[in-house]
Q: What sequence folds into this?
């Protein structure tokens, strides 16, 4: 079996992220509840970690985020 290490490229980078405690935004957060958002390395979207009533994670492209904002605006009136 040949050594293919030289053919594989591993890229290292740092991600831009923002973190906030939910205490200032939610009506009944625990002291440890938070939300964190990390921008994708390619800039096409972001990951969100929501730690409130268990940990939840989701990913959105900027287009999906724009659609979500449109729906929130529609429902929030």
A:
């Amino acid at each position: 079996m040949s050594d293919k290490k030289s053919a594989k490229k591993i890229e290292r980078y740092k991600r831009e992220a923002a973190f906030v405690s939910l205490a200032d935004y939610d009506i009944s957060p625990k002291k440890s509840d938070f939300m964190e958002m990390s921008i994708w390395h390619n800039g096409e979207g972001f990951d969100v970690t929501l730690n409130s009533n268990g940990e939840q994670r989701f990913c959105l492209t900027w287009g999906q985020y724009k659609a979500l904002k449109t729906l929130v605006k529609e429902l929030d009136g």
The beta strands are 17-21, 34-39, 45-51, 55-61. Residues 34-77 form one domain. The two ends are 64 Å apart (CA to CA). DSSP finds one helix and four strands in the chain.
